[in-house]
Specification:
By secondary structure, the protein is mostly helical. It has seven helices and no strands.
Length: 168
């Protein structure tokens, strides 16, 4: 049985897993359009969803391990915020996949390829990359600022403690 001491972590973690399954499921529902509309660079390189699935499994395990190996509440707080940002993006992607499947007209792949030129696909990839990575970069920058600030304060406190102990 898993201990649920860190309820916030578990809520976001389980939500991520559910959305990951939803993302893969809705992607697979769009199999006839997948070769044309899938923007993920791993899919574009390999033509398979398997590397995406494996990378997500590594991410899920790595995030769990990293969260539980860090004893600093600051680290844990920002890891949860980072995962929350990823969850928001995953929700948007899964929703977009579901809407594509639900509203997909009966058109041929050739007709879709005619509309989605390489320029359109490139613009869409840039848009989704910014959508995905901007919150993550923001979270990392926020954490680094917090970490550096607290490290400086800790050094000053240690220096003051040493001065007091030398006087005493």
């Amino acid at each position: 049985m898993v201990c649920l001491d860190n309820k916030g972590f578990w809520i976001v973690y389980i939500t991520y897993i559910i959305l990951f399954v939803g993302d893969i499921t809705t992607t697979m529902l769009n199999t006839k359009l997948l070769s044309v509309l899938e923007l993920n660079p791993l899919y574009r390189l390999t033509g398979s969803l398997l590397p995406i699935i494996l990378l997500n499994l590594v991410f899920v395990y790595g995030f769990y391990w990293l969260y539980h190996s860090k004893k600093s509440s600051g680290w844990q707080r920002y890891l949860v915020i980072l995962l929350m940002m990823v969850v928001i993006v995953m929700r948007l992607i899964a929703m977009n996949n579901a809407l594509t499947w639900y509203n997909s007209p009966e058109v041929s792949v050739q007709e879709i390829e005619a509309v989605y030129t390489s320029e359109v696909m490139y613009d869409a990839q840039i848009y989704y990359a910014v959508l995905m990575y901007a919150p993550i970069i923001f979270c990392i920058i926020t954490f680094l600022l917090w970490y550096w600030d607290h490290r400086v304060k800790r050094k000053e406190k240690e220096k003051n403690n040493e001065e007091v102990s030398h006087r005493g």
